[in-house]
Design brief:
Elements: H1 2-28, E1 45-49, H2 56-68, E2 73-80, E3 86-91, E4 100-106, H3 112-130, E5 134-140, H4 142-153, E6 162-169, E7 188-196, H5 207-210, H6 213-217, E8 223-231, H7 233-236, H8 245-256
Parallel strand pairs: 1-4, 1-5, 2-4, 5-6, 6-7, 7-8
Antiparallel strand pairs: 2-3
Helix pairs in contact: 3-4
Length: 257
Amino acid sequence: MHNKRKKILIGLVLLVEFIIFITSTLWIFRGSVLNDLNVKKTPTATVFIPGYGGNAVSTNDFIEQFNDHKIAKRTLRLHISSDGKVSTIKQYAKVGNNNPLVQLLFSDNTHPIKESYQMSNVMKYLYEKYHIKSVNLIGHSSGGQIAYEYMVNHPNEKNVPKVNKFVSIANDYPKNDPRVKNLPKNLEVLNIAGEIYNFGTDAEEAVDIVKPMGKLVAPHVKSYTFHLYKAGPLSAEHSMLHENPEIDKIIAEFLFK
């Protein structure tokens, strides 16, 4: 009996190790979907805005996948203090015709409206210090709200980069907002929702809440596209959407092709 239990235990350990090995292997090679993706290289910077309570982990995978596959170049990591002061934590590369990537880290990261006003300082900083004339904005969850609120509340700012494209991932917006007319007229918008299997939600944001963004913004921008990403929880869950190379590919084709 003792030997039988020991064999069962060894079998379970080997099974767990096998599952871990397979999962790790799949995780390592998950970025292969980005192999051989041809993109245009321009000086337009792509700015990554984390969601509620977000930190470097929230956007690192996006940036690393783009950088490692030579789609874009990891360039700047910026810190925004609680009083809105912007500083460079690290400059990884020069800003140039390399699709520069800019990572934002907010000290006060649980107040999206406050962060949206601090975005004005970020944009002036990029324009004045790094001479960046145009940007794309990517916001996950309430990071999308930060980007939207910045654009509708600061339509006539001088000496800031022009916003060309906006990617919103798993966020909801007001059904009616008179400020929407302040969005840049040439703005191109990609709205992404996640759905776990056929449950209608990514476990935090329902598809029916994310999708209506189109009715709000489409009449006021150059183009609007909605993409529903449906998969299992390891790919389509709310927080896994920013750890998913398939989503990275969708975004890269929108931003850089």
